[in-house]
Design a protein that fits this description.
Layout lengths: L19 H4 L8 H14 L2 H6 L17 E12 L6 E12 L2 E14 L2 E9 L3
Antiparallel strand pairs: 1-2, 2-3, 3-4
Length: 130
Amino acid sequence: MNPDARCPCLSGDTYSACCGRVVDGGQAAPTAVQLMRSRYTAFAVGATDHLLTTWHPATRPADLDLDPAQQWRRLDIVGHARGGLLDQEGTVEFRAHYRFGGRPGVLHERSRFVRDEGRWVYLDGVHLED
C-alpha cells in the first residue's frame, strides 16, 4: 500500500503514520484499539501475516484465506473497555462495513484482546446484531 495514502482504518492519518507501522513495520500496537485498527487494515489490504501473528495462539487458525472480492470500506469504533497501555486485557466494539458481490454488509463485533508476551493480540469476538 502507498505509505502516503490515507489509512484504510479512516483515522485521518496516512498509512505510514498509522497502521502501516504495525502492519508492515512490525511495531507492537500500544493499545487494543490500535491493534483493532491495524487488523481491520490488514483485512483491507490482504496482510494475512499480520492477522495471524496478532491472533492469540489458542484461537488462531492454522491458515487464513482472504477473499479479494470482499472490499472493506469503513471502520467505526463503537466503544472500548480497558485495553490501554497498562492493561492486560480489553474489549473493542466495532462495525466494519464492506461490499461483497456488489452488496453492502456490516460486521458488528465485540472483540476481546489480551497481552501475550507483552504484545496485544486478538483472542476472540462475539458477533452482534444491529
